[in-house]
Design a protein that fits this description.
4 helices, 189 residues, binds ligand 3AM
Length: 189
Amino acid sequence: VRLFLAARLPESLLKDLLVLRADWVDTLGGWRFLPPEDLHVTLRFLGETASAPDLLARPAWTRVVAEARPFRCALTRAGRFPERGSARVLWVGLEEREPGAALGDLARRLEQAARAHGFAPEERPFHPHVTLARARRGARPDLPPLEPLSSRGEGWVREVVLFESRVAPGGARYTALETFPLGASTLDA
Ligand code: 3AM
């Protein structure tokens, strides 16, 4: 199965994103929008994984996430991948507000744990974002204005989710396999 680890979006940020998404759905052509329940912030793409490595790694995800604290985030701006040339992905950036470096730390610790469990290293820099849409095949999609968002909302990230990605007509669909709460081990202490 094809797996990835992602932060679950705080409800307040999801709400803001859905307002923006509805606006873009109405005004932009050439894009395939992710269904609202599939919106997430990828922390570590794991790739095609056999069931033994998957099950062996889950305690490590549990531990790393339990040892991290919940953190507060806000949406930053809309962007696209690639930044130049024809856009394939439309996203909204996420930035941490408090306590400081928790989001990057969490991604880094998951990266270490993934490598320790034999997953191929992720060489690309971590760029926290929520993918809202992917270009339709062969389309030259319209672009929204890529400016800072008017949303001032903030919300707490409290969960990391292990997702399975399945190929489906009309684009990949995601299934949550397991949810890991942030800060579980600090609560026990
Ligand atoms: O939904 P986002 O954009 O966060 O782009 C893929 C998607 O990210 C990314 O993993 C998420 C779930 O599919 N992805 C796909 N292939 C990848 C790869 N080879 C990848 N990330 C890194 N390396």
